[in-house]
């Protein structure tokens, strides 16, 4: 299996497991457009599949944060890159939030990994840096901005998946709501 094929399979599995945390191997294979035998060659058990997706998602999330330049770019530029990176990897983002977020619990099937806490801390620090630079409101805790950011990403991805918004509009919608809020 090539990297692009493996990535496509993992992306499909992430989407399937986000929608149905209890999906069977057959349901996962059908959603991925592969036979159960092909899925079995990739991972012999459901637990191995889940572990493979989780591991890949954590790697993708780390790459997203690294590529955004949270420590080196001006805050708004870094935020825009972060948004673009998350939208590009939206299936993995939705999986991470639905599987690991201890507050959502809707589909949470895995303990909250230490890596996710590191991701949160990195965003907390980024928002603190942006607040100090005057780019973000300083009257709100940076931790809350991090929580809002992840909540917005999940909601944005879900809305696009359900066809309620166009993918092309995702960056503008996210930035507009996150930075300006809902007030006219």
Question: In brief, what are we looking at here?
Answer:
The protein has about 180 residues and is mainly alpha-helical. Helices cover about 70% and strands about 0% of the residues.
Structure report:
The chain has a domain at 53-180: Tetracycline Repressor, domain 2 (Orthogonal Bundle). 71% of the residues lie in helices and 0% in strands. It has 9 helices and no strands. The model is unreliable at 103-108 (pLDDT under 50). Keywords: DNA-binding, Transcription, Transcription regulation. It comes from Alcanivorax quisquiliarum.
Keywords:
single chain, 184 residues, mainly alpha, Tetracycline Repressor, domain 2, 9 helices, 71% helix, 0% strand, elongated
Low-confidence stretches: 103-108
The CATH class of the domain at 53-180 is identified as Mainly Alpha
CATH architecture of the domain at 53-180: Orthogonal Bundle
Structural class: mainly alpha
Percent of residues in beta strands: under 5%
**Under CATH, the topology of the domain at 53-180 is which?**
Tetracycline Repressor, domain 2
The averaged pLDDT comes out at: 85
Major sheet: none
CATH superfamily of the domain at 53-180: Tetracycline Repressor, domain 2
Number of helical runs?
9
Shape: elongated
The overall strand count is 0
Radius of gyration: 17 Å
Distance between the termini: 50 Å
Write the H/E string, N to C.
Answer: HHHHHHHHH
Helix content: over 70%
InterPro entries: Homeodomain-like_sf (IPR009057), HTH-type_TetR-like_transc_reg (IPR050109), HTH_TetR (IPR001647), Tet_transcr_reg_TetR-rel_C_sf (IPR036271), Xre-like_HTH (IPR046847)
DNA-binding region: 24-43
Pfam families: Xre-like-HTH
Keywords: DNA-binding, Transcription, Transcription regulation
């Amino acid at each position: 299996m090539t990297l692009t094929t493996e990535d496509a399979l993992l992306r499909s599995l992430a989407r399937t497991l986000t929608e149905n945390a209890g999906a069977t191997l057959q349901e996962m294979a059908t959603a991925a457009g592969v036979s159960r035998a092909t899925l079995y060659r990739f991972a012999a058990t459901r637990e191995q599949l889940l572990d493979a997706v989780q591991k890949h998602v954590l790697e993708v999330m780390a790459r997203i944060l690294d590529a955004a330049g949270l420590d080196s770019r001006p805050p708004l530029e870094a935020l825009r890159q972060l948004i673009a990176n998350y939208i590009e990897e939206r299936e993995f983002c939705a999986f991470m939030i639905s599987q690991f977020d201890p507050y959502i619990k809707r589909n949470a099937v895995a303990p909250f990994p230490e890596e996710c806490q590191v991701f949160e801390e990195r965003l907390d620090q980024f928002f603190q840096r942006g607040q100090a630079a005057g780019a973000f409101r300083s009257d709100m805790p940076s931790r809350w901005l991090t929580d809002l950011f992840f909540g917005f990403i999940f909601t944005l991805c879900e809305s696009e998946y359900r066809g309620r918004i166009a993918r092309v509009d995702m960056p503008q919608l996210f930035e507009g709501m996150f930075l300006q809020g809902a007030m006219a």
